[in-house]
Amino acid sequence: MVFNTEIGEVALIWDGTNDVIKQVILPDESGKYNYSKNNFSGVLLEEDLSDHIMSIVEGIKDVVRGVEVNFDDVELDFSDLTEFQREVLQKQLEIPYQRVITYKMLAHLIGKDKSARPVANALASNPFPLIIPCHRTVRADWHIGGYNGTSDGSVKKFLLEHENVQFDKDVVKKRYRLTCDNSRPSMSVS
User: Fold this and answer.
1) Which residue in the list 13, 60, 101, 134 is annotated as catalytic?
2) Is 180 a catalytic residue?
3) pLDDT tens sequence for the chain (190 residues)
4) Of 133, 132, 117, 187, whose CA–CA distance to 165 is shortest?
5) In sequence order, what are the beta bridge partners of 168?
6) What is the pTM of this model?
7) 6/171 Cα distance (integer angstroms)
């Protein structure tokens, strides 16, 4: 299913049998849905949507608007992901609304301190952007960085600004940064 949001056309792909989400596809630079990013075949235009799928669509629209959304009742299909990707994405789910962390800190939280680049790559290929809020993770210098496999962080900045995260020259202001206590993998707001 393709639907419009404030960032452009977003596609939601799910298993029609049990409403398991297979993929969320963000728009390309033109704001249009890019069919080449679809990893699945099947119907994209659905007329009779279940209430559950409609609530997910509305939730995604709300995330783009900057509303805090809980997707706890949404089942995501992790079957095509590596164990490392699953671990990164599951930890990313813990990053709270209006807070930002770095790739390096996320690597620390999963116990793989030297894996900042692989963590960034796992987030760049996140099949569930907006549901798994990978826009809340930035470069080590707190600059935006890329988003959803692109080097342009304009959509990431848009999403964070709509969560009321503030920047100083594209650097996340300190009050929105999560930091890791080096003695244990926990988060505290700085």
Assistant:
1) 134
2) no
3) 889 999 999 999 998 788 999 999 999 887 887 777 777 766 555 667 889 999 999 999 999 999 999 999 999 999 999 999 999 999 999 999 999 999 999 999 999 999 999 999 999 999 999 999 999 999 999 999 878 766 678 899 999 999 999 999 889 999 999 987 643 444 544 4
4) 133
5) 171
6) 0.90
7) 23
